[in-house]
Amino acid sequence: MVLKMKSSTPDCSLVITTYNWPEALEKVLQSVAWQSILPGEVLIADDGSNIDTTDIVKKVQDTFPVAIKHYWHEDVKKRKTRINNIAISEAKYDYLIFIDHDIILHPKFIEDHLALAKPGCFVNGSRFLINKQSTDMFLAKQNMTPLVLKKLRGKNNLNKMRFPSLMTYLASRYQSHDNMAHIVRGCNMAFWKNDLLAVNGYDERYQGWGREDSDIAIRLFNNGIKKRSIKFGGIAYHLQHKEANKADDDLYERMMTNVLETKSRWAETGLNQYFKNNSDNFQAK
Description:
Elements: E1 12-18, H1 22-33, E2 41-46, H2 51-61, E3 67-73, H3 80-90, E4 95-100, E5 103-105, H4 109-116, E6 121-124, E7 128-130, H5 132-140, E8 154-155, H6 164-173, E9 188-192, H7 193-198, H8 212-222, E10 226-229, E11 236-238, H9 249-262, E12 282-284
Parallel strand pairs: 1-2, 1-4, 2-3, 6-10, 7-11
Antiparallel strand pairs: 3-12, 4-9, 5-11, 6-9, 7-8
Helix pairs in contact: 1-2, 8-9
């Protein structure tokens, strides 16, 4: 993939969580490269993918307009929380934007997130759900431009409309001040690194589908950090895929509810362990 070099504004680190979908990850990286404002670096938080993902990352690293760093650990259950904590500990910049490997970015995605970055707040965006036909079409394309986004079809059409002035107004007008802060989409979020340090990052007890993003949102809220929601900006196009295994959802729901009720702020097993040279079970590639 040959990419046109752009000047970078290194205000943030972009963290992309991934697991064994290299075809989608490659397309996500293409959408990162066409951003109007590039992130300072891209961190691939890899929850144990096979060699195909490593091959994709190596394929694009040399020609990519910003540094790509690939962090991997062994494939043991679903440990998104652990690999995200590792990425946070390694991030170079003060502001971190998180997406998943199935999220294609509007060209103004990073620009919109940076426009809403505000001390004392984290940011959560929405997503446009691409249908299967458009997902298949998108993955089959070799060389893409942002024009292809106009051809995507799916649900939640309101979530692919961009009005920057309305985005800014709504984010300020409806900043969350209550426990609705835990209703989030982990595939489109942004935090100040110091705020994550203050609550010890992600709770690594979550080793299955769901609730880990709500958990960290609750703890941030309990620590005085408000949620700002992106509407009409920060547009994310979500590729269709099979539903995740939700076998442990009841357990994680109870864990999350306990955090709400006890007003907990700190993850007992979290980010701090990676600042003690104790990350010998992951690899930076």
